[in-house]
Amino acid sequence: MVKPNFFRKCLPLVFVASTITCSAALASNTSSWELGLFQQAALKHANSNVVLSPLSLKFGLAMAKEGAKGNTLSSLSAVVPEGWTGSQESLAGAQINIANSAWLKPELKFNPDYVQSIQRKFSAETGDLSLSAINAWVGQKTQGLIKNVLNELDPSALLVLVNTLYMNGEWAIPFNNCHDLENQCRGQFSVSETKKVEAPLMFNHWRFKYAENTEAQWLELPYSNSTLAMDLGLPADKNTLANLENSLSAAKLDQILADLKDEDVEVFLPKTTLNSQGSLLPLLRALLSAKQLDSSFLGGNADFSAMVTSDRGASVPLEISDIIQATEIKVGELGTEATAATAVIMAPGAAAPNPKRKIFEATHPYLFLIRNTQTGEILFSGHVVDPTQN
């Protein structure tokens, strides 16, 4: 059997807090905001590749929630349900490493109850606030895939919360190596009506979960011995990815995934390397605005007073000043290797011809989700507009 290549992905997310006061309300349907965040990113970057990690963001918000009070606490409970700790029990089979940390200016002190809480629920480490220390920690936890989650650190930042998420999963059914299919190593990928690029293609043929309608083809690629899978949405019309993405709702996506059935499918999928780094704050604000939800926990009216105290024991007001995420992802024959870091700164061979065989040929823009099929939680999401674009 041909061994699969790796699909790598890295994401760092940073919440910056200086003087913080926050309050908010989020949709009670977690999958709704996870999907909505991707839709906002896809809308903003319609003509370029997109990759992000809702799960890494959720860990950052979960650690912030542990230091929240009043309306801020209740509003964050809508996106981070009570009792949620990001348990890895349902992710058995794939190598999943999750790490959390909190970095504080040396002249301040953590509230002992806050530290005890994030250590108990998230096995969080603590340290003195330092750009080099944070980046070194992230590099270690992401197997060196993310070297600099932060390029700089605002002098006013008092506290940085960091999550890293590393995934290494092999496809249950590996793709064929390029040299096994000499005539199918490269193909034309239609970026747009006027632009085509030559991209390396992988091939697979198996009974995969598959569905199609007038809008799109949908395919699920499972990971070996795991509840994780990658779901791909390929628009029926080459130039309608944005329409497909905008039409999705959590309920519609759930129905599409429920309709997937085992079919004989030939799959052509480009090998890709995606990476991105930037602030998620504008996307999160846009999402909350679109859903007419309170975004004040991202501003100066939140209450995170249970996190930090001064050397005299007085609580220190904080606010989330930024959320930064860095990502890298590589898709190849063997599977997926992915990492995400979130920092919250405050401040097989061909068979005989089959007329019923389905053809899933991803040679124009498509979307993807890496999700836990048991819980529905989205680890990574994105779209590929140009597989030759890093």
Describe the model.
The longest helix has 15 residues, at 30-44. Strands 2, 7, 8, 9, 10, 11, 16, 17 and 18 form a nine-stranded mixed beta sheet that branches. Strands 1, 3, 5, 6, 12, 14 and 15 form a seven-stranded mixed beta sheet that branches. A two-stranded antiparallel sheet has the order 4-13. The model is unreliable at 1-14, 16-30 and 348-353 (pLDDT under 50). The chain folds into two domains: 14-171 and 273-346, Antithrombin, subunit I, domain 2 (Antithrombin, Chain I, domain 2, 2-Layer Sandwich); 178-269 and 350-384, Roll (Alpha-1-antitrypsin, domain 1), CATH 2.30.39. By secondary structure, the protein is an alpha+beta fold. It is elongated. The protein has eight helices and 18 strands. A hairpin with a 5-residue loop joins strand 7 and strand 8.
Furnish the topology, listing elements before pairings.
Layout: E1 14-20, H1 30-44, E2 50-52, H2 54-65, H3 70-76, E3 95-104, E4 109-110, H4 112-122, E5 125-128, H5 131-141, E6 159-170, E7 186-190, E8 196-212, E9 216-222, E10 228-235, H6 241-247, H7 250-258, E11 261-270, E12 272-279, H8 281-290, E13 308-309, E14 318-331, E15 335-346, E16 358-361, E17 366-372, E18 378-384
Parallel strand pairs: 3-5, 11-16
Antiparallel strand pairs: 1-14, 2-18, 3-6, 4-13, 6-15, 7-8, 8-9, 8-11, 9-10, 10-17, 12-14, 14-15, 17-18
